Amino acid sequence: MKKESKLYTITFTFVVTFVFVFVLSFLNSATSERVSQNQRLFTIKAILNGFGIEYKNDIEALNIFKKNVLIQKIDGVNIYSTVVEGKKLYGIIFTGNGLWSTISGFVATDENVERIAGVDFISQNETPGLGGRIEENWFKEQFKSEKLIDGRITVTAIGQADENHENGKVDAITGATQTSKAVEKIINEYLEKLRVILGVKQ
Asked: Where are the domains of the chain?
């Protein structure tokens, strides 16, 4: 009887453990798939935003992306291109170190990499209310149509938003100068990478 009782306990424990592990594995797999899909959607929307292509919802964003954005792998790097209002635009996903986290996003330019079409962010974990404000529209809108001076964008004095699109300058975020400067450094690195890949001169 004791042996049967012990065998029952072992079997029961094994079955419960097996079921528990199976359920956890299933949930992890399902969650990973959802996370992957969400990350892809965030990326697609950032690319469309960078190109200045409007969409009404997630489904429309996916459809517009498939129909209008070409992806070419050049030198191992994905280069995105599209045509907006008759103008050819190119873009590249960027990633680099912020003050507290890795910052990734998308920057689009004209075909000669002389003027930024737009910038959007895919992921960042900078300080909320400070560096995290790089995702605010006023900050991102500064980059739109900004002319590159000597091939670069420059983050300058703190203000509400630099509205001059011919000086190659954008305002830093109050209290987040280091994150703002990190964004400047990352974007300039990838603008140069895009320039080299496309074979255009500064």
From this structure: 48-198
